Inverse folding.
């Protein structure tokens, strides 16, 4: 029997996933501008790359028990001092939990229950975060380098963005003169 080389690489510390059939998507500011308080975003600014997501799974994605591995890279971008964030979502299937794993950079993981109560956890290289199935989750880069996190979640979880649009996270995250401020909406 021949020992095989790994077919996937989560390149460390550079942190990208390489391999066949790795899915890749990215969000520009024009895709997520509604998340930010500022309404003064220039046309040029709208082309700023905000975050990138790699994901991978094998086999039937509808198969209960199957998993995605993912990597999110949030760039160090500030929109009038407001920190770069993911859209944030609940899982369509509220029973599906997720792990986030800090690889590089410095961030916050915002968690919000279905009543709109929010908490925040620091994300650092090596930090491991358990996200219960009924919590919306959003990543925020509060540092000066790209924030990279690994993630693992069931392929049957689904992304429910609408519930977060209807009930947004109650705090905005700013960095003001190097200090992180949580500002109630
Ligand atoms: O599954 C996850 O929670 C992550 O892979 C996110 O989808 C990723 O971080 C991007 O965030 P969002 O889907 O909220 O834009
Ligand atoms: Ni998720």
């Amino acid at each position: 029997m021949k020992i095989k080389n790994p077919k996937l690489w989560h390149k460390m510390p550079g942190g990208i996933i390489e391999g066949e059939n790795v899915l890749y998507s990215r969000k520009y500011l024009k895709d997520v501008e509604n998340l930010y308080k500022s309404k003064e975003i220039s046309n040029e600014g709208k082309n700023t790359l905000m975050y990138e997501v790699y994901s991978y799974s094998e086999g039937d994605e509808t198969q209960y028990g199957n998993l995605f591995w993912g990597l999110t890279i949030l760039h160090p971008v500030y929109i009038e001092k407001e920190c770069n964030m993911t859209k944030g979502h609940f899982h369509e299937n509220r029973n599906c939990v997720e792990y986030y794993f800090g690889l590089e950079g410095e961030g916050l993981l915002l968690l919000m229950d279905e009543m709109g109560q929010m908490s925040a956890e620091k994300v650092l290289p090596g930090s491991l975060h358990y996200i219960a199935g009924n919590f919306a989750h959003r990543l925020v880069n509060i540092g000066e380098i790209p924030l990279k996190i690994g993630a693992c979640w069931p392929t049957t979880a689904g992304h429910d963005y609408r519930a977060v649009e209807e009930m947004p996270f109650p705090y905005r995250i700013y960095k003001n003169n190097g200090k992180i401020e949580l500002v109630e909406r």
Summary: The helical segments are 29-32, 162-166. The pocket of nickel (II) ion (ligand 2) is lined by residues 89, 91, 98, 137, 153 (CB under 6 Å). The chain has two helices and 17 strands. The two ends are 61 Å apart (CA to CA).
